[in-house]
Amino acid sequence: MSSETQIIRTEYSDIMKKSYIDYAMSVIIARALPDVRDGLKPVQRRTLYDMYELGIRYDRPYRKCARIVGDTMGKYHPHGDSSIYEALVVMAQEFKKGMVLVDGHGNFGSIEGDGAAAMRYTEARLTKFTQEAYLADLDKNIIDFGPNFDETEKEPFVLPVRVPNLLVNGAEGIAVGMATSIPTHNLCEVIDAVKAYMKNDEISTKQLMKYVKGPDFPTGGIVVNKDELAGIYETGQGKIKIRGKVEVEELKGGKKQLVITEIPYTMIGSGIGKFLNDVCGLVESRKTSDIVDISNQSSKEGIRIVLELKKGADAENLKNMLYKKTRLEDTFGVNMLAVANGRPETLGLKAIIEHHVDFQFELATRKYTTLLAREQERREVQEGLIKACDVIDLIIEILRGSKSVKDAKACLVNGVTGPITFKSGISKKMAALLRFTERQATAILEMRLYKLIGLEIEALQREHQETLKNIARYEDILNHYDSMADLIIGELDAYKKEYGRKRRTAIENAEAAVFEEKKIEEQEVVLLMDRFGYAKTVDTSTYERNKEAADSENKYIIHCINTGKVCLFTDTGRMHQVKVQDLPYGKFRDKGTPIDNVSNYSSSGEQIVMVCDAEQMRFAKLLFTTRQGMVKRVEGSEFQVSKRTIAATKLQEGDALADVQVVTENQTLVLATKGGFFLKFLAAEVPEKKKGAVGVRGIKLQKKDELEHVYLFDDSTETKAMCGDKEVNLNRLRLARRDGTGTKRG
Q1: Alpha-carbon distance 218 to 70, whole Å?
Q2: Which one is catalytic: 121, 197, 585, 711?
Q3: Would residue 134 show up in a list of annotated catalytic residues for this protein?
Q4: 309-358: per-residue pLDDT in tens?
């Protein structure tokens, strides 16, 4: 045989494709998706089986979760302890599962998103429901076992779950290229649907929905699209609309409060905190002024979020606002994907029940086949012992005359008398006629003498009669569909009686939430913003009464409409838009709010160079000037955009926007630099450009000089400026051309 390495030439893409498909199927089948038969993912199945093997039963003490996780990881699930512990925690959280499978002791997290304590602190054990409905009869050969990852242990391919767990507890999982999302359902309703299917396998999905009304989430809530459920359960896909439950409570003095007592299932976790923030946001953005206080009074007893309302507030309209503007009404995307017959498949309600029933018949067949075989073995032994009691003197003679157990057994089974010494020839002839079976002979040889007592013989005969009854019963179950069906239905009824509970989620057809926002009465206001960036609006009469103080205390004073917007141009070349109604409206001496809080403007990274009313700017032309002396005119209509922030101009490297002003054709422009140079020319010389253009040079700057001030005026109006300590009359400056060096002053 050659020791040379064999090189196989193949297409790289083919290897990649095959490898990725293998990986994807491994994730789909062996990690992310539940099996339609037991409704469990591999990590859940392995954890429950490991707890069963460790003897952590419902009637025994709790054990540390770290022990359970470590044992599961070491024996069955080599994918990291966090995934095992997370699965264990979820199976113990009653707000996530229709029926909890693990009895947790300690901090297992909360509905508000608090995480569970570390596994070294928490303890767990199986619930009685899990033990009876998920792990019973494992000793009766009812499921197949296979080797674990290192072939040192045996693990079950599926658990013998007696209830439709896929529907009862639902499932969520993300695989490669596919995901599953199955809502939880009511145990009693699902059992009734299974029974209806077993009595008539031609039953339709619509008829099954007489029993399964819809999802039953552990958090309660209201499903509001009842008419769409039939299509969802037929195809296994769709969207369920769920709402939280809101009650109106009357308070003293005619006031009311809205109390949220149930939340949508999708709000489990950080959703409650986000809801509280969203409500605060509605108040801050003045979508409503009727909510005066909000408090989360939730406890172990349940959810209770209280919204205190103003006197005379429209509670029904506010309720609709919460449904419309927050996640108090949400969508649960249904995709009932599970592993069926070894491959992922999207299943409707009837298909899931069909798979479950087939699995139950398979379990029952294997269980009662095993029990029948055991009873038949027992019958064989019992018949042998009864027969042996009738000829006990002969058997004792055979045993006394035998030199070994082998000789005695050969005589009992085949009538071999040669090696045995008998007292008489008659005994020898009778012994030669014996024909016990191997199993019977072994039982006779192992029989104790007290079994020969009369009462013991009677007990043996009674036991034999009981065995014969069991055999007849098991054969009837195995040979007749109706008998097996009655048995399965009886078990389901027992689970329903002991573990069933009332539905939590209401199912109804509700009209879409309609929220009528109060229309703001349009009026002219004055925006005041001081040099620290604090802004507010006041009505025009208030401004006129305090005009002198307002002009001296504020850097920007803009007349605008309260339903409009104002634009902030900054030295970075950006424009930020602010809704006027987002600014506080009130008294002249109110402090206002930082403009940073209501816009994308950041006072730490940019400086405002101009503020103007968006509506007034639409029909004007804007003059842009930069520190490096670049100028351009831009149509104001270019800045009529819906975005809160845009690039208002293009800047060269190291340049910054110096000024933005509304300009007209007949105005005169003076550019003043830090070095004391003044250049005067007609504004009409500045070309019109798009907002994305750099512009043209307005003034030639000296080395290390930069543009400091921009003056726009009419020659008919006397305009003066300061240059150092000197006053410069801009009207008397010589009119020059754009792109000059200007005249030195000061």
Answers
A1: 30
A2: 121
A3: no
A4: 988 888 888 998 999 889 999 999 999 999 999 899 999 999 999 999 99
